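Exercise: predict the structure of this protein bound to pyridoxal-5'-phosphate.
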Amino acid sequence: MAMDYGTAADLRIDLGALVANYCMIAAQVAPSAVAGVVKADAYGLGAITVSRALLEAGCRHFFVAHLCEAVALKPHLPADATLYILNGLRAGAEAECAGIGAVPVLNALAQIDAWAATARSLGRALPAVVQVDSGMSRLGLMPEELATLRAGPERLDGIDVQLVMTHLACADDPSSPVNADQRALFDQIAAQFPGVPRSIDNSGGALAQDVQHGDIVRAGIALYGGAPHGDPNPMAAVVALDAYIMQLRQVPAGTGVGYGLTHRCDRPSRIATISVGYADGWPRHVSNRGSAYIGGIRVPVVGRVSMDSMALDVTDLSADLLHPGAPVELLGPHQTIDAVAAQADTIGYEILTRLGSRYDRTYLPATLESIEP
Ligand SMILES: *Cc1c(COP(=O)(O)O)cnc(C)c1O
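Solution:
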């Protein structure tokens, strides 16, 4: 495998694990279809490459958040795949969306009216998803808007409603009673759209037991190996990230490390400066509390994370593991995205979506075995 010696770190994306995760979710929710949520460049992993792997595994539904993402991805999808835009359309974007053949999620009456007007002006029906707010207060039609729509169903004339959807606020916690409340309310609301397929679940909802998953689940984080429900995580790891040691120094007790000298060595110490910093998406919040692994051994982050580097205390490591250029595991078998997220007081989603642009990205191909059931 060719190494790019000019980058900050080596990011490996295992498309076989991605496909295995897709198949695992598909088996869980069958006969519901699994859509790939590939917004934010497939959570930082590369929307085009990820979509291609999902296509080969049989995926035919893809969700992005914005029209600009749809414009970039649509040419890479075959005609029988559907590309949806979760955030809907900003006024004025309708013609471009219709032009590329993407399917907007209509989140408000005004968006329905604008999409219907576009359909009239083009003289053809336009496909759409209608999202309803079942309790998260984020996006989707409110109860008053649904009542207005019931009183004036002709507002949907010219719109081919392909899906009615909602989003769960607490799907990451299957024990939350909110899930059942939202599902029950959505069942009532969806009855207003007879015969229209339904979509409710994200990754957390898709892995919930003993519930109806509707016609299409929208899986994001679980495809990428993140934990849908916290520990234990049943998903296969997709991402591995290795930085490298740039420099090593031996310093006496009392020496300060990094900006603000927020770490003071309490003993004679060996400090390794490694090649990833917050400009590479590594959270500055792990200053003095994060970790990395060298030769499978945990080493602490000491001092503040800099823009392009951070320091590790490697005093306890044997010398043969320590040399300039030696790899340092930031994500991999010893340190998951969720573990880093916990160090940084955030969620795995944020760790993934912030992964840096200065990485050498290698995709491990999906093998036939990972596609076959
Ligand atoms: C991002 C998103 C998803 C995917 O959520 P995961 O938790 O990553 O599976 C599904 N549905 C909607 C509406 C979203 O915004």
